[in-house]
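Quick one, tokens below. Sequence please?
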């Protein structure tokens, strides 16, 4: 006996909030939900375009391609770099302390040691951020961006924009994925765009356009 769709609000696999429609699998991690969607006899208006993507001669190349990771992974790398640089500065100060003072616990050495510890903390934090950013498997799926919206977050003197893209995949499966803005030099994806979606959980890492 199938579980009523209204009782399943989040995916048991990835914990993502599910769309308010009957789905047989999670659109974010493809975990089976034990639900058989009701057929209403209506074909999605994007079904033909998705079929064309599946038959496109560049699909295999697009599916084999690996995009750069998202902003959180990049931030983790920046923390690791800052940590290594900080640790090197601490080592230099500690080494210099032995050349200038006979006391091994002189103030310069202690300062250098504190800086080294601070650098190690940054390295550990950065690696943790990277691990979290890539903890979910990257899925590659042909689809069409059917809609988008955005939210602006203000932080101090600045802020950022997060975009939400609704993507339809083969079989009419849909999900809404987040895409943090990359700044004025990177335009967000447009609606009605066909291609291959690279996703990790609810994050849209990249959308590779395929002209059909």
């Amino acid at each position: 006996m199938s579980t009523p769709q209204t009782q399943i609000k989040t995916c048991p696999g990835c914990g993502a909030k599910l769309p308010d429609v009957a789905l047989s699998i999670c659109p974010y991690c493809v975990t089976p939900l034990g639900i058989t969607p009701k057929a209403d006899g209506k074909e999605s208006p994007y079904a033909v375009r998705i079929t064309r993507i599946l038959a496109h001669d560049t699909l295999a190349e697009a599916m084999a391609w690996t995009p750069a990771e998202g902003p959180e992974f990049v931030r983790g790398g920046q923390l690791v770099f800052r940590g290594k640089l900080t640790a090197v500065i601490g080592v230099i100060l500690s080494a210099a302390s032995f050349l200038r003072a006979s006391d091994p616990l002189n103030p310069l050495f202690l300062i250098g040691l504190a800086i080294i510890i601070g650098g190690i903390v940054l390295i550990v934090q950065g690696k943790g951020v990277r691990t979290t950013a890539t903890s979910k498997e990257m899925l590659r799926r042909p689809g069409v961006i059917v809609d988008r919206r955005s939210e602006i977050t203000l932080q101090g003197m600045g802020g950022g924009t997060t975009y939400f893209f609704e993507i339809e995949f083969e079989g009419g499966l849909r999900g809404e994925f987040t895409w943090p803005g990359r700044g004025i030099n990177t335009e967000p994806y447009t609606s009605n765009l066909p291609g291959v979606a690279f996703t990790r959980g609810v994050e849209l890492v990249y959308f590779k356009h395929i002209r059909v």
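The first strand starts at residue 138 and ends at 155. Helices lie at 47-55, 59-64, 71-100, 107-133.
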